[in-house]
Amino acid sequence: MQASIQRKASADPTADVVFETRELSRHYGSGDTLVKALDQVSLTIAPREFTAIVGPSGSGKSTLLQLMGGLEAPTAGEVYLRGQAISAMSGRDLSDFRRDHIGFIFQAYNLIPVLTAAENCEYIMLLQGVPKAERQARVDSMLNRVGLSGKADRRPAQLSGGQQQRVAVARAMVSQPDIILADEPTANLDSQTGSDLLDMMHELNRREGMTFVFSTHDPMIMERASRLIQLRDGRIESDEVRA
Ligand SMILES: Nc1ncnc2c1ncn2[C@@H]1O[C@H](COP(=O)(O)OP(=O)(O)OP(=O)(O)O)[C@@H](O)[C@H]1O
């Protein structure tokens, strides 16, 4: 009995882990100017978590998110997404993997200014070779879910900051990634707009099971988070599961 349970568990060791970091470090400079932005951080993220990474300025939050997303290379340690070592990939393999498995939401929205809201959402699926009819159906459905179906043909400059960030959420979700990494997504929004955006992401998390990891100073994100990871000086100071 015991043996069969163990065999079943080892058949898919990543089933209950989306993300894992092992002894992850990122150092800048050397000698007297050495900064351990991240220092041997090990953590796992389970499916459907709504995790906030918090901590004082300079504690390593953005660095951790950048390393988790493969946007920066670690000095030491490993990053795994669904059991695949992102930290061992480079070049085209890394960018293709990132495109297909990770959604990013940035503080400054980072939409392509010459494309409409719909085209911004469609862009990654174009690169993935998703057929046109499916692209359009997914974009329509996603823009509807973020409350922007009437604004599909507007370019970013014709949208408010909150609406642009909704497009960014739709763009991150529409290619159905394993996880969404959001770096201070509400930092440029007024509190009502930020609160509405968070309610929307929380709803997507609960209804569709999308896994989110935020780096943030925003108390509104902390209130809604199912898990709070507190960093200090590049290390995990506390890790609290709340739901
Ligand atoms: N490119 C870099 N070169 C040198 N030091 C860096 C670099 N990037 C980050 N650091 C340093 O690493 C440490 C962690 O920075 P990081 O941006 O991850 O912190 P943070 O918690 O996100 O801060 P904030 O809340 O202010 O955004 C800081 O001491 C920072 O100065």
TrEMBL record:
Residues 19-243 form the ABC transporter domain. The keyword Zinc does not apply. One of its GO terms (molecular function) is transmembrane transporter activity. One of its GO terms (cellular component) is transmembrane transporter complex. The keyword Ligase does not apply. Keywords: ATP-binding, Nucleotide-binding, Transport. PANTHER family: IMPORT ATP-BINDING PROTEIN (PTHR24220). Belongs to the ABC transporter superfamily. Macrolide exporter (TC 3.A.1.122) family. This is ABC transporter ATP-binding protein.
